[in-house]
Design brief:
By secondary structure, the protein is of the alpha/beta class. The protein has 3 domains: about 1-105, Probable tRNA modification gtpase trme, domain 1 (Gyrase A, domain 2); about 125-205 and about 380-435, Four Helix Bundle (Hemerythrin (Met), subunit A) (Up-down Bundle), CATH 1.20.120.430; about 210-370, 3-Layer(aba) Sandwich (Rossmann fold). It has 16 helices and 12 strands. It has a 6-stranded mixed beta sheet with strand order 3-4-5-2-1-6, with helices on one face. Strand 10, helix 11 and strand 11 (about 320-325) form a beta-alpha-beta unit.
Length: about 450
């Protein structure tokens, strides 16, 4: 089957790029242009015609990439037309009428590239991350993964395990032959080396995932403390409804921000108080859950009535900044016990000390994003495979001590399989859909 799609962004633009890939690509290009194929990888100006009526649609550039030297590994072409909606739609309509030619699914071009051995699974994911990158740090991380360092590390660990497995299987195949003591010692040491490397990778404070998904900040606190006003101030727009009526915010309101190049997701939550209203109670439950999962909590309180007992005290114990709002109404100094806490005294009404709060948030961000040069885990999928691999290696190490080679070999095979699943070295059809469905159509 030959596939096609608009690969540039939808809407009016100077240039639109329509991509075609599959066995019938060359015939389609010749039919569209009423001409021979252009030279491979050379942009060639051609008239683009309606295949059925020979009416001129547009004049644009044709790029021809014969397989396997193409992005997908198949015969592939790109048609660069003017970016008007009518022009693009006319070309897509013509392609839809070609036999055995259909619209590409999300990420299908990159999926073909993976299936045809042009890229590994990590690089495929990093391409999706690069397209979705909204901040500089996200772009840099995606590019780093694209360069292949992560894949090299995982593949190197996998090859070590395969070598160990060959020793174990030799013992199973020839039970009468005893493995020399030095071989057994090397097997144990190599297994421990791989396990320690994986545990070190896992101990990364989830920096890679935070960069990819965004640093989560939850604004929490009692009703009428100024949480929604703070969200609007940080966002520089009216995101949440502000009212003097307590309990206005019932659900979690989220907005995405770029703070000094760091991706941030800020959530305004329902004011926490004792309530008999069922909807408000559900909102409060969501607030506490959002606070629990946040990388940083901004606990907003009213300067006139600060009560840090109960849930507020619990929220301030870890990854939190106490934001004392309405300081313009404060008649005396803060309680010394409160002053000892990590706090900022602000007034949203007078726009006082907001810069100090933002500086505290930035410092927290920078500390969270500190890591070594090689950020390897960018998705929960990678983490789960590494955890499973580590568990099987621990089991293998225990069984190996008891000379239980048959069962030890199975644990080693499973550990090797989980490493292979990260880069796509084994049958991974069951995970392909979830990965490539996140792509845009045309990539």
């Amino acid at each position: 089957m030959t596939i096609y799609a608009l690969s540039s962004g939808p809407g009016v633009s100077g240039v639109a790029v329509i991509r075609i890939s599959g066995p019938d690509t060359s015939d389609i290009v010749k039919a569209l242009t009423n001409n021979v194929l252009p030279k491979p990888r050379v942009a060639t100006l051609r008239k683009i015609n309606n295949i059925n009526s020979s009416d001129l649609i547009d004049e644009g550039l044709i790029l021809w990439f014969p397989g396997p030297e193409s992005y997908t590994g198949e015969d592939m072409a790109e048609i660069h037309t003017h970016g008007g909606k009518a022009v693009v739609q006319a070309v897509l309509d013509v392609l839809s009428q070609v036999k055995n030619c259909q619209m590409a699914e999300p990420g299908e071009f990159t999926k073909l590239a993976f299936q045809n051995g042009k890229i590994n699974l990590l690089k495929a994911e990093s391409i999706g991350d690069l397209i979705s990158a909204e901040t500089e740090i996200q772009r840099l991380q995606a590019v780093k993964i694209m360069k292949g360092k992560s894949a090299e590390v995982f593949e190197g660990l996998r090859e070590k395990l395969l070598k160990i497995l060959s020793f174990i299987e030799a013992k199973i195949d020839f039970p009468e032959e005893d493995l020399p003591d030095e071989n057994i010692k090397k097997i144990k040491q190599d297994t421990l080396d791989v396990l320690n490397k994986i545990l070190k990778i896992l101990n990364d404070q989830k920096v890679g995932e935070i960069i990819r998904e965004g640093f989560k900040i939850a604004i929490v606190g009692p009703t009428n403390a100024g949480k929604s006003s703070l969200l609007n101030n940080l966002s520089k727009r009216e995101v949440a409804i502000v009212s003097e009526i307590a309990g206005t915010t019932r659900d979690v309101i989220e907005t995405h921000l770029n703070i000094d190049g760091y991706p941030v997701i800020i959530s305004d939550t329902a004011g926490i108080r004792l309530s008999k209203d069922e909807i408000e109670k559900k909102g409060i439950k969501l607030s506490l859950k959002k606070a629990e999962n946040a990388d940083l909590k901004l606990v907003v309180v009213d300067a006139k009535s600060i009560d840090l007992k109960g849930f507020l005290n619990d929220l301030l114990k870890k990854n939190a900044i106490l934001v004392v709002n309405k300081s313009d109404l404060l008649k005396e100094k803060l309680d010394p016990e409160i002053s000892k806490l990590n706090h900022v005294l602000i007034s949203l009404k007078d726009n006082l000390n907001i810069d100090k709060l933002i500086l505290k948030i930035k410092n927290n961000l920078k500390n969270k994003f500190i890591s070594d040069k090689d950020i390897l885990i960018t998705r929960e999928r990678h983490r789960q495979h590494l955890l499973q691999c580590a568990d099987h290696l621990k089991n293998f190490y225990d069984k190996n001590d008891k000379k239980d080679f048959d069962k030890a070999a199975e644990d080693l095979r499973l550990a090797t399989r989980h490493l292979g699943m990260i880069v796509g070295k084994v049958d991974v059809e069951e995970i392909l859909g979830s990965i490539f469905n996140d792509f845009c159509i045309g990539k």
